[in-house]
């Protein structure tokens, strides 16, 4: 079989130099590793003297196990959902979340597949993984400020009926001093029909909570199930920011082999005590890895309540023991603000020695 270069088959791989929608001038194609995107072709574009980020639908990612027409239809449905959900959030004035600034669909001749569907976003400085790798000014106080931004963005999404489901380092973008949640493509919205509405978890399995791995359905309440998943993902992010690891990544190290999700087929309730034992070991490892300048006990308690293995008991202790929803993030926003201020003071105090 002749191996034809992608940029001769798919117009989406050959956009540099083209102008889309009569305004978006495509200047540079970005690598997958530089964008975190696995199902899109990403570019830098210019308009009005400002640079933006463009994401074009990648039809080459369609599985060979499905018919091409069916695969293209599925991809277009996903594209339309992300576009519509982003516009929904824009109309609801959701902040701390990356929203599209433009979109379109165009056809180019001289390609086997000349259709290009694209979304345009405000261009970030980088995602949080790269920022934490290269920034010489990154400190623990900045981490708490960024995490507070994320918690605010997540609460804003919840307030308009959206569960993000895919909160992870590559989906946190840094804009100068502000962090925003990006990539609504895997999100669920109670007010929009989407491709993932019937899924138990639509995000990256690398960051999934305990109940997903054990196929444990604990509630029929849409808000509880999905927002508590987001709570776990926020706790994972806190652990990642401050230690470089996550609760999900450490799960396998402390579970007996016979209770590993790949092998265990019994009930979730039967192994709750085992999961709690493993979780305590995870918390001890994370605590020992926390920077000395932070209040380790407060951070540990925050991760513990957000990532608690038993989802019915997950959430801020004061919320769990009251009538307010377990998933309400306002107490965590307040806590992160306190930790930011306290850490700034500790760092300043150290400069005086």
UniProtKB/TrEMBL annotation:
Residues passing through the membrane, by range: 233-255
Occurrences of domain Protein kinase (ranges): 28-327
Signal peptide residue numbers: none
Keyword Phosphoprotein: no
Gene Ontology cellular-component terms listed: cytoplasm
SMART domains, per the entry: S_TKc
Gene3D superfamilies xrefs: Transferase(Phosphotransferase) domain 1
Short name of any one Pfam family annotated for the protein: Pkinase
SUPFAM superfamilies named among the record's database cross-references: Protein kinase-like (PK-like)
Molecular-function annotations in GO: ATP binding; protein serine/threonine kinase activity
Keywords from the UniProt entry: Kinase, Membrane, Transferase, Transmembrane, Transmembrane helix
Name the record gives this protein: Protein kinase
UniProt KW Transmembrane helix keyword: yes
